[in-house]
């Protein structure tokens, strides 16, 4: 996610990611993009997630849940 | 990937292009603003403008948070970065933005401790690990990014961290849209609305555009078919004599936005009375400052910030580009003195900037490609 050739702060760059594990340091969730890029993501703004859920991530914060099929 | 592959289907794109051509009146010119840099990027990456009739003109809006930061604000950041004991953190997007004499990257080369982070939480982690230094986070971005800063500040407050503060330069999308709608320079017929800002704020904040100005807004996703479909929805509203907010991006954007994010924003931030935007000047209530409850985390209250005001370079026409008055290639220095490698203006520095999008995708003039 971090190597994407776009600005993090662009109000409209958000990346679909899949939750791999929850309950990490700072209560963050380990997430991964379809391309395998990993990030620790704050999931405080959405309903509780579990491994396998798909989320839309902006600046390391999940801003929305996605249908599970949205991330392969 | 679901929701990506089917939104990049070339055949469906051509079918939408035919529908768009059928929706317009030949003798009429349609001027549609895509508010977000992300949409601008998609339009030129996928050649969406080549699928539109000649009389449908796309105008690029002010929705790139890097592009709208005035030079004086960069100078203020550099002044903070030079404070003894300060570690100045920012997104990589901001490092190359020119201030009046140098960028944050130049300041770093000159000895200031400037570090790139991927999130505000990364900056907080630096503060935790370096308790003898003070960590400033240069917070920029629209409503999509501001919740990330808000969550980090709530965390810092809960932990009682004292060596962390935020130079808050978050901006809000509605006031500049109002300013553009009031501008005599520009006659717009409709807006491709910002999909991920709307994920946070919902559709309601955009309702003033049809209600007060009679222009349609379609909140749009970012894949090529999303943008084409949104343009078609706007054109159909115009031709049907309608003006309302429609949500093309329903698979992501809830009508009411993200309530938890809105609560966090309301707790941590207040509206500034006014804020300077590059090219647009001062706009009332268009940016966020920290609320009194978070005053201890406000870099501008903890340090003396110069509050520099600097006029843009004369050769640079970012202001006109941000307002959609000129196309990037109409700027005097586009592609010559101003390139992504040696940018004069912010619109060329940020990948989402309209100038960078034109430059990177070879649009040195608006030459249509027959598809």
Short account of what is shown:
With 72 residues, chain A is mostly beta strands. Helix content of chain A is 0%, strand content 36%.
Description:
The complex is a heterodimer of chains A (72) and B (371). With 72 residues, chain A is mainly beta. Chain A has no helices and five strands. Chain A has strands spanning 15-21, 29-32, 38-41, 54-58, 61-66. Chain A has a five-stranded antiparallel sheet, with no helix packed on it. Chain A starts with 14 loop residues before the first strand and ends in a 6-residue tail after the last strand. Chain B has 371 residues and is an alpha/beta fold. In chain B, 37% of the residues lie in helices and 18% in strands. Chain B is built from 16 helices and 13 strands. In chain B, strands 2-1-7-8-9 form a five-stranded parallel sheet. Chain B has a four-stranded parallel sheet with strand order 4-3-5-6, sandwiched between helices. A two-stranded antiparallel ribbon of chain B has the order 10-13. In chain B, α11 links the parallel β8 and β9 (245-247). In chain B, α1 packs parallel to α11. The radius of gyration of chain B is 21 Å and the shape is globular. Chain B starts with 9 loop residues before the first helix and ends in an 11-residue tail after the last helix. The A-B interface holds A 2, 5-14, 16, 26, 28, 34, 39, 42, 44-46, 56, 58-61, 63-64, 66-67, 69-72 and B 1-4, 36-39, 41, 63-66, 91-94, 118-122, 140-145, 147-148, 151, 155, 173, 194-197, 199-200, 222, 251-252, 254, 258, 260-261, 264, 350-352.
Report strand % of chain B: 15-25%
Total number of strands of chain A: 5
| Overall pLDDT of chain B | 91
Structural class of chain B: alpha/beta
Give the neighbour order of strands across the main sheet of chain B. 2-1-7-8-9
Oligomer: heterodimer
> Could you estimate the helical fraction of the residues of chain A in percent?
under 10%
The Cα radius of gyration of chain B reads 21 Å
Order of helices and strands of chain B: HEHEHEHHEHEHEHEHHEHEHEEEEHHHH
